[in-house]
Structures are given as structure tokens and as C-alpha cells.
Amino acid sequence: MKESINIMFKPLRKKNSKRQEAPWVQYIQNVTRKQVETCFSRLTNLFPKSIHAVTSKGFELKLILFIIAFCVQFL
User: What's the pTM?
Assistant: First the structure.
């Protein structure tokens, strides 16, 4: 991602780390992490317990359709 669109990821540091991030960086990391986790949990709630697919293309098609349904649901 850094090479293609110049985005650099910084992982969250543990609380007992000796080299803490700046407080504003920690805030942005926590807010972003919560948004991603909320979106992912909403997306996985749409999925059934198991996805029956015979081929890999069929599996990919079903995943794409679930993601499209997720997008349409929140419009």
C-alpha cells in the first residue's frame, strides 16, 4: 500500500511499551480501529454459518454478492 497509494500503517503499541506514540496518534489509531471492527462485524453478521459452494468461482461469487448486499443495506 505504501508504494501504490502512499499509505503507511502504524500498528498499535502495547500499553507497557517504552516508546509510546503521541497521544493524538493513539486517538486516531483507536478511532480507526473501532470503525473497521464495527464495519467488519456488521458484514460478518450477514453471512450464514456456512457457505455451500462447489467451485472456487462460486464461492467468490457468493462473497461478492454478500458484500454488495451489505452496501445496499446501508445506503
Answer: 0.60
| CA 29/CA 23 separation, integer angstroms | 10
Question: Between residues 54 and 10, which one has the greater pLDDT?
Answer: 54
Give DSSP secondary structure letters for the chain: -HHHH-----PPPPTT-SSPPPHHHHHHHHHHHHHHHHHHHHHHHHS-S----SSHHHHHHHHHHHHHHHHHHT-
CB proximity list for 39: less than 8 A, separation 6 or greater: none
Residue 38 scores a pLDDT above 70: yes
